[in-house]
Amino acid sequence: MVFKLVTVFVVPLATMVLAATPGPYHAPPTPYAPHHPGPVYPKHHQAPPHHPAPHAPQGYCDPKAPPKCAHHSDLPFCLEDPEYPEYEIANKISQDPIFEKKYSDVPDQSADDLVEHISEYQEDAFNYAYYTGASKGHSPFDLSHWAGPEGYLCPSQVDYAKIKRAVNVEGYWRIILQHAPKEYGYASYNYTQTTRLETCLTPDSACRLIAPCYNSKCTQKYVYHRMVSVDPCDLYRGFFIDTYKLPSACSCHVPH
């Protein structure tokens, strides 16, 4: 009888389980590539975002904005106006047959009619050159300061003007109705509004021929005028009466 020897190896269960559990995954190594830095482009400073300032709607008309005739003047009125709407005004006047009877004017005005004891010739001579030409000293209180043979205590400029535009008492610019017909074929409609303007040549200065001890001062006076007007922002509104504060006199004031 022959016996065969069989060798049996006993492996622990824990070892078998450990051998069956897969290990952590490792990605295959990537092929080596040499490092070459990319191109460097110059950086430009980006401009800040542009936020446009708020603006008026297209076609908006600001009634308080000074017109072109007042761009180089601090006066609240214009005696000349390159943008004066003559044609529109002439057309409006022609549609009212009794317009001139409703709004009559005294076109010929002068000192002969409005200033007692002073003629038009005398008043026209009382200008800036007349008063300053008589002064022989540098001080405004010099004995010869503004010492002409005659004149006002406070030098002033007088104009019998036909104002084209003016600021009303509310601060709005208005077109003043002044129609001297030219080439528009409305020869029978000649309507004007004449205003006497007297403006101090040297406001707040000492009055001439008054002793310095009185502390006199030239003061500008104003008067309210009501004139037929047109709204430059709405010509189709038609004519209306508006009120304006205009210089009327230059007086000498002596305080207590």
From TrEMBL:
<dbReference type="InterPro" id="IPR032104">
    <property type="entry name" value="Spaetzle"/>
</dbReference>
<dbReference type="GO" id="GO:0005615">
    <property type="term" value="C:extracellular space"/>
</dbReference>
<dbReference type="Pfam" id="PF16077">
    <property type="entry name" value="Spaetzle"/>
</dbReference>
<feature type="region of interest" description="Disordered">
    <location>
        <begin position="29"/>
        <end position="59"/>
    </location>
</feature>
<feature type="domain" description="Spaetzle">
    <location>
        <begin position="152"/>
        <end position="254"/>
    </location>
</feature>
<keyword id="KW-1015">Disulfide bond</keyword>
<dbReference type="GO" id="GO:0008083">
    <property type="term" value="F:growth factor activity"/>
</dbReference>
<feature type="compositionally biased region" description="Pro residues">
    <location>
        <begin position="29"/>
        <end position="40"/>
    </location>
</feature>
<dbReference type="GO" id="GO:0021556">
    <property type="term" value="P:central nervous system formation"/>
</dbReference>
<protein>
    <recommendedName>
        <fullName>Spaetzle domain-containing protein</fullName>
    </recommendedName>
</protein>
<dbReference type="InterPro" id="IPR052444">
    <property type="entry name" value="Spz/Toll_ligand-like"/>
</dbReference>
<keyword id="KW-0732">Signal</keyword>
<dbReference type="InterPro" id="IPR029034">
    <property type="entry name" value="Cystine-knot_cytokine"/>
</dbReference>
<dbReference type="GO" id="GO:0045087">
    <property type="term" value="P:innate immune response"/>
</dbReference>
<keyword id="KW-0325">Glycoprotein</keyword>
<dbReference type="GO" id="GO:0005121">
    <property type="term" value="F:Toll binding"/>
</dbReference>
<feature type="signal peptide">
    <location>
        <begin position="1"/>
        <end position="19"/>
    </location>
</feature>
